[in-house]
Amino acid sequence: MTDVIIAGIGQTPVGEHWELGIRNLATAAIRDALQNSGGLKPQALFVGNMLAPNLSNQAHLGALIAEYTGLTGIEAITLEAAGASGGAALRQGYLAVSSGMVDVALVVGVEKFTDKIGADVEEATATENDSDFESIHGMTIGAQAALLMKRYMHENNVPENGFAGFALNAHANSVANPNAAFRKAIKAEMYAKSEMVSDPLKIFDMAPHLDGAAALVLTRRELIPSDWQGQPVKIAGSAASTDTLALHDRKDMLRFDTAQISASKAMKQAGIELNQINFFEYHDIFNIYAALQLEAVGFAPRGQGWKLAEDGSIGLKGRIPCATLGGMKARGFAGGAAGVYQAVEAVTQLRGQAGANQIAGAQFGLIQSLGGAASTAVSHILQKLG
Amino acid sequence: MEIPRHWRLKKQRYGLVGEVCPHCNHKIFPPRDVCPNCGDEAKEQFAFSGKGEVYSYTTVYEAPAGFDANAPYTVAIVKLEEGPMLTAQLTDMGEQPIQIGMSVEMVTRKMRNDGDERGVIVYGYKFRPVAQNAIAG
Ligand SMILES: [Zn+2]
After folding, report:
1. Residue B2 CB neighbours (<10 A)
2. pLDDT per residue over A112-137, tens digit each?
3. Which residues does chain B have within 8 Å of residue A151's beta carbon, measured at their own beta carbons?
């Protein structure tokens, strides 16, 4: 199969962009990515978005964003898979380009959370749960994560503040990322004293929901112009998997099967073993998800994922660096853009452009985008080409 | 608000009516007409006893629109005696501390804020501690 290359990356800072609507955010990231690609001309646009029909009363983002980017006429659609929308859009772009039907694809993830606040945002995000059998009982996404976290701590004797390491790592890594919302390291006491959202879930166990957009330009290796100056990064593996929406419908809710299945398929396609992965951008919208992903992918045995945050294994110099530019916890969670930010940051690492946070000798990165509590997981292996 | 949807779900909301698989005897809630255990068709109705135990629980302070008037409230995953799990609020807790493993039983309660735009009040299952029921009758 021909190599699919990420030839351009673009992003806006994640934050409260009062002055920018969803179309402006997407356009800014796309223009950044197209410029970064050296002026490749896209034929198709894949938009990852989670909640625009609800949060912004705006559907049909494909045509809208194409128009505002000056690309009217090209094929464009939206992909929605809750928090995995960005990963899903990347996978569709990959499939289109690798099939040969599209030569250059644009992938953009975008979300505008801050036009609504409080109970309205809770109502919107709760639509990713099972509406008839979870949300009607007042279940929020935070409550879902708290239910998992409570059971996990109960079964595995995790001490109070046992998840602090995830937040500390993310915030330490965000300092050097100019696009991160919170560029400040935190101390263990700050985590311990942070507000309780849904017992045992503290505010530092979850990522802030903010605005942002990130974009990628994909093409096949042989189509790259000979005078192209960039460092090619290849999509070496791509896979997706689904599970029940409702936690209560799982045989074993403390096992993220979709994370396991999609990661192992992507690794198999890439032809690599777990120990060849140099860093892992997990979907740390909640710290408990990060722990369960570390276990599902195979970096830790069942019930031990949280210890990798305790003992420094996920640090920049650890065994498996995670959230290397701040993750969702500190860069900020921008819904359908989240999975595309992961790709942008992984490419930054693989190009050797991560500055103070550079993982020395990084050749393979795993990125994993989750929808809900891993009801969808999309995994990609990105590879630096020599 | 979505009257047909709430009407459609009334057997589950008021009676915990699910299904039993005629092929492997697996008990199914919520109903889905396909057995999650063996994959065969399963359309035979089965009313659950409403007895179970708390598998996990948490408190919601920041509630979605429609639930905010009742916050804070406790949401739990309950493992039913017959096997399946479901999500429900815990109610009538009094001073009792909640614990994983505690016995609970189904009661019918109001699910959302009163007086939404259509004035529809949605009723459905919640769970309360079994011990307290013995005292309160
Ligand atoms: Zn069966």
Report:
1. 11
2. 999 998 999 999 999 999 999 999 99
3. 55-56, 77, 100
pTM of full prediction above 0.90:
yes
Across the interface, of A134, A148, A196, the residue whose CB is closest to B87 is A134
pLDDT grade for B137, boundaries at 50, 70 and 90? very low
Please give the pLDDT value at position B86.
98
Would you identify the CATH topology of the domain A4-117+209-223?
A: Peroxisomal Thiolase; Chain A, domain 1 (3.40.47)
Indicate the residue of B5, B12, B56 with minimum beta-carbon distance to A151.
B56
Bridge partners (DSSP) of residue A134 are none
A4-117+209-223 matches A119-207+236-384 in fold: yes
CATH superfamily placement of domain A119-207+236-384: Thiolase/Chalcone synthase (3.40.47.10)
B62 vs A197: CB contact, 8 Å cut-off? Answer: yes
A314-321's contacts with Cβ under 8 Å and 24+ in sequence apart are A314/A165, A314/A166, A314/A169, A314/A280, A315/A169, A315/A172, A316/A173, A316/A357, A316/A359, A320/A277, A320/A279, A320/A280, A320/A294, A321/A278, A321/A279, A321/A280, A321/A359
Cα(A213)–Cα(A275) distance, rounded to whole angstroms?
A: 32
ipTM of the shown complex = 0.94
pLDDT tens, position by position, A197-250: 999 999 999 999 999 999 999 999 999 988 888 889 999 999 999 999 999 999
SS3 B120: coil
Between positions 25 and 84 of B, the ones with CB within 8 A of A are 30, 36, 55-68, 70, 73, 75-77, 84
**CATH number of the domain that residue B45 is part of:** 2.40.50.840
| Domain chopping of chain A, boundaries | 4-117+209-223, 119-207+236-384
Q: Which residues of A56-94 are buried (b: 16+ CB within 10 A; e: fewer)?
A: bebeebbbbbbebbebeebbbebbbbbbbbbbbbbbbbb
